[in-house]
């Protein structure tokens, strides 16, 4: 009997794909990827982003953040050339106009705008205004539970 049930289990595992399992809550557990494609590009982009953030935080006397912006411009060029996708969180922190890192109180100011007549909370928009004058608008009032795919909690990787 034990042998039979074992066979059944192995068949089920084969159906679900390589090494994936479903836990008791019904969440599909996927093993972490064994290799990262374009690892050197990823590392370079990550390094440039951290360098740019560092120089924005440290170089307070440089009002135009020239060095920091140059690194970020470089990141943008490499990202486009290699067609590497940035995570939404990273993308939101870069100004499209001047390539500044968006750091609150240093390079960006924020306020909540509501341009609707009834001033309902549904129409609240978070406005981030960069030093260069351009602004990003996030209509968070419509769906406060909105998460991008990467930010979702149910992305569970198996523990090894
Ligand atoms: Zn800007």
UniProtKB/TrEMBL annotation:
Biased composition (Basic and acidic residues): 1-12
Record keywords: Metal-binding, tRNA processing, Zinc
Superkingdom as given in the UniProt entry: Eukaryota
Pfam families assigned: Rpr2
GO annotation, biological process: tRNA processing
Region named Disordered: 1-36
InterPro entries in UniProt: Rpr2/Snm1/Rpp21 (IPR007175)
GO MF: metal ion binding
GO cellular component, one term: nucleolar ribonuclease P complex
PANTHER family: RIBONUCLEASE P PROTEIN SUBUNIT P21, RIBONUCLEASE P SUBUNIT P21
The family this protein is said to belong to: Belongs to the eukaryotic/archaeal RNase P protein component 4 family.
Protein's name according to its UniProt entry: LANO_0H20054g1_1
Organism from which the protein derives: Lachancea nothofagi CBS 11611
């Amino acid at each position: 009997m034990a042998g039979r049930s074992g066979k059944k289990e192995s068949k089920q595992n084969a159906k679900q794909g390589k090494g994936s399992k479903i836990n008791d809550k019904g969440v599909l557990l996927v093993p972490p990827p064994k290799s990262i494609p374009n690892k050197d590009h990823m590392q370079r982009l990550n390094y440039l982003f951290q360098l740019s953030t560092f120089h924005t935080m440290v170089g307070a006397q440089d009002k135009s953040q020239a060095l920091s912006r140059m690194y970020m411009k470089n990141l943008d060029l490499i990202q486009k050339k290699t067609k590497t996708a940035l995570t939404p969180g990273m993308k939101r922190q870069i100004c499209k106009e001047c390539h500044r890192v968006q750091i609150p109180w240093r390079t960006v100011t924020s306020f909540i705008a509501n341009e609707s007549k009834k001033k309902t909370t549904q129409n609240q928009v978070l406005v981030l205004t960069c030093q260069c004058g351009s602004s990003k608008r996030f209509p968070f009032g419509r769906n406060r539970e909105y998460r991008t795919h990467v930010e979702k909690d149910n992305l569970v990787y198996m523990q090894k």
